[in-house]
């Protein structure tokens, strides 16, 4: 590990470290309005949500790195105490990047970026029509930390009203593939939260997992299972007993499978197809050494875990332990 003391390197170097290591960061596209009625639109990636009762978000209109001057967003917030925070999607990311240009104070970034201003219901700053998720907010406070270049100003805001596109919802949840958000990484890099980049991790909210320390040693010592696999194994409330495992294996052996082949080549084809049930049956039916059979069974359990069938994975892994 490379150990670095922030005070011993330059501010730009500290900034690059933070932007590279604290990522991906959601982007707040913040709309404000000056006391003279001039619209301002600027993205901020030092941003997140901090509570729901009341709904609180915060972002940092930090001082400019080159001369420590304060940005228009900062002054508008101080003067009007209102803003709209719009989420940034893939379809608008280039326009949002354009809005980050350091235009003069009298320039309207809606016009420069080509994004569409629409009236808000409760605050004066405009919403961004192209964004499918908009929050009308009031400023609660701004806290400042330092007066040098790139010093933080944290704007803490309360959400007064949400505007959300109806087609984002699947079963009452905003689905990541529907909203198609982007996030900031380091330098010119962005991240798109869509497709294969999206995965699920079951939260241990409604149950108490057995924990890593309660895993059988043969599972912890396996070279097949990754640390993520072990974490998933440990997030169950109980380990299946021997009778449950035997009943499971007998059921799998008795199943009639269509277009089923018994060969090692077929096993790995089923693996590529993500069919862990056929993998298990194939591993059971193949005439292999104990070491080979154990390996194929553990590969099967691993895929079942990754496909979120933890019960199947546990029973397969436990059964593999008899082949040593």
From TrEMBL:
<feature type="domain" description="Flavin reductase like">
    <location>
        <begin position="20"/>
        <end position="176"/>
    </location>
</feature>
<dbReference type="Pfam" id="PF01613">
    <property type="entry name" value="Flavin_Reduct"/>
</dbReference>
<dbReference type="GO" id="GO:0010181">
    <property type="term" value="F:FMN binding"/>
</dbReference>
<protein>
    <submittedName>
        <fullName>Flavoprotein</fullName>
    </submittedName>
</protein>
<comment type="similarity">
    <text>Belongs to the flavoredoxin family.</text>
</comment>
<keyword id="KW-0285">Flavoprotein</keyword>
<dbReference type="InterPro" id="IPR002563">
    <property type="entry name" value="Flavin_Rdtase-like_dom"/>
</dbReference>
<dbReference type="InterPro" id="IPR012349">
    <property type="entry name" value="Split_barrel_FMN-bd"/>
</dbReference>
<keyword id="KW-0288">FMN</keyword>
<dbReference type="GO" id="GO:0016646">
    <property type="term" value="F:oxidoreductase activity, acting on the CH-NH group of donors, NAD or NADP as acceptor"/>
</dbReference>
């Amino acid at each position: 590990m490379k150990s670095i003391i922030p005070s011993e390197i330059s501010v730009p170097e500290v900034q690059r470290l933070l932007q590279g290591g604290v990522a991906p960061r959601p982007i707040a596209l913040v709309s404000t309005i000056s006391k003279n009625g001039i619209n301002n639109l600027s993205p901020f990636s030092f941003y997140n949500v901090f509570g729901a009762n009341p709904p609180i978000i915060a972002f940092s209109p930090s001082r400019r790195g080159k001369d420590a001057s304060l940005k228009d967003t900062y002054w508008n917030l101080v003067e009007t105490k209102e803003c709209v925070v719009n989420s940034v999607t893939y379809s608008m990311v280039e326009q949002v990047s354009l809005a980050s240009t350091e235009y003069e104070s009298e320039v309207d970034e809606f016009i420069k970026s080509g994004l569409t201003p629409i009236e808000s219901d409760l605050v004066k700053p405009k919403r961004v029509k192209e964004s499918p998720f908009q929050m009308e907010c009031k400023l609660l406070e701004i806290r400042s930390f330092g007066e040098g270049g790139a010093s933080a100003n944290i704007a803490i805001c309360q959400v007064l009203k949400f505007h959300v596109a109806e087609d984002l919802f699947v079963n009452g949840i905003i689905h990541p593939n529907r909203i198609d958000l982007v996030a900031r990484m380091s330098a010119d890099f962005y991240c798109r939260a869509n497709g294969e980049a999206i995965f699920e991790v079951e939260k241990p909210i409604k149950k108490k997992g057995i924990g890593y320390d309660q895993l059988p040693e043969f599972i912890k010592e396996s070279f097949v299972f990754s640390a993520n696999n072990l974490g998933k194994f440990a997030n169950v409330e109980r380990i299946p007993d021997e009778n449950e495992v035997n009943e499971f294996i007998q059921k799998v052996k008795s199943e009639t499978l269509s277009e089923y082949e018994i060969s090692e080549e077929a096993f790995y084809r089923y693996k590529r197809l993500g069919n862990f049930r056929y993998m298990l049956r194939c591993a059971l039916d193949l005439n292999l050494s104990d070491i080979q059979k154990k390996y194929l069974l553990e590969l099967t359990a691993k895929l079942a875990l990754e496909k979120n069938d933890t019960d199947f994975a546990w029973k397969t892994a436990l059964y593999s332990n008899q082949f040593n």
